[in-house]
Hints:
By secondary structure, the chain is α/β, with parallel strands linked by helices. The chain folds into 2 domains: 140 residues, 3-Layer(aba) Sandwich (Rossmann fold), CATH 3.40.50; 160 residues, L-2-Hydroxyisocaproate Dehydrogenase, Chain A, domain 2, CATH 3.90.110.10. It has 9 helices and 12 strands. The strands form 3 sheets. Strands 3-2-1-4-5-6 form a 6-stranded parallel sheet, with helices on both faces. A 3-stranded antiparallel sheet has the order 7-8-9. Strands 10-11-12 form a 3-stranded antiparallel sheet.
Amino acid sequence: MKITVxxxxxxxxxxxxxIADKKLCNELIxxxxxxxxxxxxxxxxxxxxxxxxxxxxxxxxxxxxxTANSDIIVMTAGIARKPGMxxxxxxxxxxxxxxxxxxxxxxxxPNAIIIVxxxxxxxxxxxxxKVSGFPKNRVIGMAGALDSARFRTFIAEELNVSVxxxxxxxxxxxxxxxxxxxxxxxxxxxxxxxxxxxxxxxxIIERTKNGGxxxxxxxxxxxxxxxxxxxxxxxxxxxxxxxxxIIPCAAYLEGEYELNDVYCGVPVKLGKNGIEEIIxxxxxxxxxxxxxxxxxxxxxxxxxxxx
Length: 307
């Protein structure tokens, strides 16, 4: 198993470290356009491997030839948000970054599965899908995994319970129009609606939608990376170990949920072939309308790129 992480910034480097710690591959490549950065961070990760009892071979590079024959490509490169910026503000710049990186990586690894983390997530995943020419099951966006983790965090805090017992689903685009599904979210099987009043649930949902910018406002010069990296690696692990896990991810839809030609967060089964099934759950009229609005936001942004 060979995995390439594109982008040696905070998200990319943290993702690479977790992959090495979890021993999810034999060979791990960290690539970036900046000379010395991927080499230095990769060497640092490699030198941590004896402590973690991991024999993963980690290499940093600026050359896509080193990424050849990767099984999984994790795309994290792009500019990060700053206070006052929305994810959509990153679109034009990051679209060019994703296009260039994926063109180079796809040539070297035509059978790889691509996981996109760059923002705006759903639009960048669509760019990667179009540029790579890969089948839709092998181009996946990391969105719902992170949004659901944030939702779980805030629920566990509010109820003072273990996060292990909290199951949450967040669908839709990775942004302000995301759709947290309270009906399908539980604590040890107990519906959230039986544990929290509507006003408190609404506040938690709003905080989940603004989970990224809350961190950006604290950091001033960067955005979240620990939770995004952990969420990404949960997807990598599901694929590497063929776990058939049900995780909300940005998937290309062709009629599912009455949506077409768009990447949008929905529950999917992740295994060795990437997305092995899109799970279609029953939505209320209100939830379905919210999902459609979220998908339309993504479509509107895709249209701006003229892909």
